[in-house]
């Protein structure tokens, strides 16, 4: 009679003390140990700690790709100590777009499923359907291969390996080669709310730049005194030469930020990001060709052919 009640007692204890029998989704991602539901040889199913540790790793925290090409996001799992027989695991890749990486306070709830695989069975989702696969070059290799990279594929990808009641994960950032450029209305500066800025960048076959992309452009020499919208809803501008009217002469060079702004009411310019395409120059329509823009795009000598027949130079390595 006691044997019949044992499974109920085990389940009751597990529900009351989730930390003692596995990982509840409310208690973070990593505790470093693996648990297994297995028969102990006498026919009684028990949950017990067997001392095996599941590790999920990536040799790269970020990768840089080219629009239209393929890219591999590295991910590999292993056990400590090493197992003598293979185990049945489930792998899940998810994605947090670059536009929400900085803005989201609860990253896990904003993640979108990319691919789920178990054994030889797999399923991809949404815009990734038919474009992704697992590399599987060696045992434990769960690296994600993305074909035909698109402009909106940038962001943070999570590789999660699930074994029984335990799971571990690692993240990899995907960035694209390209150029950041300021865009403002022909009527003058500060005419776009956040949504209008997003649209004008799309009209240029570009996206709103991220803070990281703007910072990289600043490191490459971008200096622009007018604030522009970024993908996370902040308004910022890059200054390499501090001066009056651009934050003051006493501030150090860097990004000047107004912080997160009201997306409907506040008006600024836009900082757009245009990704290169398979090593060829990207065609961009300029809002206005000013002396400042000419200096800006002259940084490394990569020509951009405009729809009006003019030419600008890229301010970012790797565009051509």
From TrEMBL:
Entry keyword annotation includes Zinc-finger: no
One Pfam short name: V-set
GO terms for biological process, alphabetical: cell adhesion; central nervous system development; glial cell differentiation; positive regulation of neuroblast proliferation; skeletal system development
Compartment(s) where it occurs, according to its Swiss-Prot or TrEMBL record: Secreted
One cellular-component annotation, GO: extracellular space
Residues annotated as signal peptide: 1-22
Keyword Repeat in record: yes
CDD domains cross-referenced by the UniProt entry: Ig_LP_like
Domain Link positions: 179-274
Disulfide bridge positions per record: 225-246
InterPro entries hit by this protein: C-type_lectin-like/link_sf, CTDL_fold, Hyaluronan_bind_Proteoglycan, Ig-like_dom, Ig-like_dom_sf, Ig-like_fold, Ig_sub, Ig_V-set
Domain Ig-like: 53-171
Chief site of localization: secreted
A single GO molecular function term of this UniProt record: hyaluronic acid binding
Domain of life: Eukaryota
Alphabetized PANTHER family for the sequence: AGGRECAN/VERSICAN PROTEOGLYCAN, HYALURONAN AND PROTEOGLYCAN LINK PROTEIN 3
Protein's name in the database: Hyaluronan and proteoglycan link protein 3
Species the sequence originates in: Oryzias javanicus (Javanese ricefish)
Lineage: Eukaryota, Metazoa, Chordata, Craniata, Vertebrata
